[in-house]
Amino acid sequence: MSFSLTPEQKQTTFWLALWLALAGLLYLLGPVLTPFIAAAILAYGLNGGVDRLCAWRIARFTMPRALAVVLVMLLAGAVIGALALTVVPVLQKEVPMLVGQIPAFLAKIDSVLAPRLAQYGIDLSLDSTRIRGLVTQQLAAGDWTSVLASARVGGSALLGWAATVFLVPVLLFYLLLDWHRMLAQVQGAIPRRWVVQATSMAREVNVLLAQYLRGQLLVMFVLAVYYSAALALAGFDVALPVGILTGLLVFIPYLGFGLGLALALIAAVLQFPGLSGLVYVAAIYGAGQVIEGFFLTPRLVGERIGLNPLAVIFALLAFGQLFGFAGVLLALPASAVLMVAFRHLRHHYLRSTFYNA
Q: Which positions are tagged coiled coil (predicted)?
């Protein structure tokens, strides 16, 4: 029994195989895609502002798109700079104070642990002089090959982050400048028999993503108010900047929460005697994670893009596993796209003879 493909089937097989190979290549290049994904998300969010500036006419003067892109990027940079100026003074104040408190903190821990460890025959002293001597001894007798290898790994990671920070604005500029032309090229590459359906799906995706962005902004605002108010009620002097930073950076998974938690822990060590400050921070940030993960994000973001809480949690874990940090950034927007595709697929399935026969 011979099996042969028609010319149209051969073309379909070829293009499907090519698209699958491209998808596999993107999967392998997942770690490299982080600046491109970040720039694309920013471009999608900022493109509306660029379009409004280009449509704004003053005395028959129409603003060139390049100038509008520069102005919008400068405004976004000013917002990011304002956040940095909120954090940097806190760091400049807290870090030197923390360094000065380390000997007293070690002495306090030593006074609690040393007697209990001595009962088991363990002689441990955490005074700063002894720790400095142990570090010096280990460096003198250590394996410098492993030390240099670790330094190289750390240097490579640092260079990678620096390249990402530099690349994102450059990529963002060109994406905003050619946004509509690139969309037209993508639309022009769609097979003509599918262009109507694909355009309709793209409009649905655009509506869902706009709702996603509005929901994410609402989550950021609520968390900024929560962390600021909770830290202020606990008596923290840096409640406002730390709370605002933690809330506003929540759109970058782990980074906003981790940085806010670190600053709050430093403030707790410096400001409160004993462990009361650390207990306050643990309670506030633990409750904040529960509120964000189980209530705010699933309800305000997940429901806006048609995903239930279980699907939101699964999307974050699955995309993070597949693409790392870039996947976490892309999880919910990509889920919105998949949700639209699944909705259309379900519609065709319910109308098919396979289902109704």
A: none
